[in-house]
């Protein structure tokens, strides 16, 4: 594999407009300009692995639930404004007994997707505890997004969309409901994160700021309406 590392631009490096180093990596399978680490967090069985598989392979992992043991990651390269952005996505085990393993990875992550299950009230109630943990272990400027997964299970819903929105507003984080089963909003969640991180890394002083919240609100599929895009 041929790997070459370059800084963003000499100017950016000099005036410190970006703290991320651009990596230009060429190999048979993978070419990218810039790389970020993203983590999926949330209680066991909320659908973190399924969200990752849906985004990476466009498929749904139905059937028997197999809990993640420890931590695992998958890479996906997406195009953002003519740059190849590699997202290294870490899938963590939601079970309590693996918590000390996953804590060690928080500090490296630039973005966290915090997931609950709309059919599980405890998974929603635990979001506050997850946020406390994030504030303890993650970087101060980490990008956080709240996802209410399994939006396809309308009949079993116990957490209202408004409650998710309210909680997200309280913590100042973007929010959307997803379905790893149908794919609703899954790609949008990762693309919004990729765009936000790319803009933070390459932002020029005179460039308008990327507004992640507006980007999501103008594109997200709202539960109970329309067809899946
Ligand atoms: N209907 C429906 N089922 C889902 C969805 N996402 C996940 N599931 C199911 O929920 C169960 C748990 O999914 P996982 O992705 O393994 O959950 P997890 O959060 O990774 O769990 P841990 O690895 O224990 O942390 C599985 O049986 C999935 O098939 C969804 O969007 N809709």
TrEMBL record:
| Gene3D superfamilies listed in its UniProt record | P-loop containing nucleotide triphosphate hydrolases (3.40.50.300)
InterPro entries in the record: P-loop_NTPase, Small_GTP-bd, Small_GTPase
Q: Name one Pfam family in it.
A: Ras
Classification via SMART domains = ARF, RAB, RAN, RAS, RHO
Question: Which BP terms from GO are recorded?
Answer: protein transport
Residue ranges of coiled coil = none
Keywords associated with the record:
GTP-binding, Hydrolase, Lipoprotein, Magnesium, Metal-binding, Nucleotide-binding, Prenylation, Protein transport, Transport
Entry's transmembrane regions: none
Cofactor(s) annotated in UniProt = Mg(2+)
Reaction(s) catalysed by this chain, per the record, are:
GTP + H2O = GDP + phosphate + H(+)
Q: Which CDD domains match?
A: Rab26
Q: What class of enzyme is it?
A: hydrolase
- Source superkingdom: Eukaryota
The EC designation for this entry is 3.6.5.2
Gene Ontology terms, MF aspect = G protein activity; GTP binding; metal ion binding
What family does this chain come from, according to its entry?
Belongs to the small GTPase superfamily. Rab family.
Q: Which PANTHER family match?
A: PTHR47978
Q: Specify the protein name.
A: small monomeric GTPase
Protein source organism:
Fundulus heteroclitus
